[in-house]
Amino acid sequence: MSPLAHIVALPVRGYRLLFSPWVGHGCRYQPTCSAYALEALERHGALRGSWLAARRVLSCHPWGGFGYDPVPGADPEFDARRRCKDHDHA
């Protein structure tokens, strides 16, 4: 992880340490948003990783998504299926 990504990850790590135990484990997604954020920062760096994490957190509401949603590049088979599905709808 780049030095900037480490800095950006600090609030996520703080959330996981301090607030996550109190909030509960009712995440709509797998992996959880905080795990997704840390992996996105690791894989894609501070800028793109932050964008991916923010997009995920903003989709976490009753009318948003749910289920298995890995970080792009973490599951090549899932990425390929997603590309095919997106291409079919275009």
TrEMBL record:
<dbReference type="Pfam" id="PF01809">
    <property type="entry name" value="YidD"/>
</dbReference>
<comment type="function">
    <text>Could be involved in insertion of integral membrane proteins into the membrane.</text>
</comment>
<keyword id="KW-0472">Membrane</keyword>
<comment type="similarity">
    <text>Belongs to the UPF0161 family.</text>
</comment>
<keyword id="KW-1003">Cell membrane</keyword>
<dbReference type="GO" id="GO:0005886">
    <property type="term" value="C:plasma membrane"/>
</dbReference>
<dbReference type="InterPro" id="IPR002696">
    <property type="entry name" value="Membr_insert_effic_factor_YidD"/>
</dbReference>
<protein>
    <recommendedName>
        <fullName>Putative membrane protein insertion efficiency factor</fullName>
    </recommendedName>
</protein>
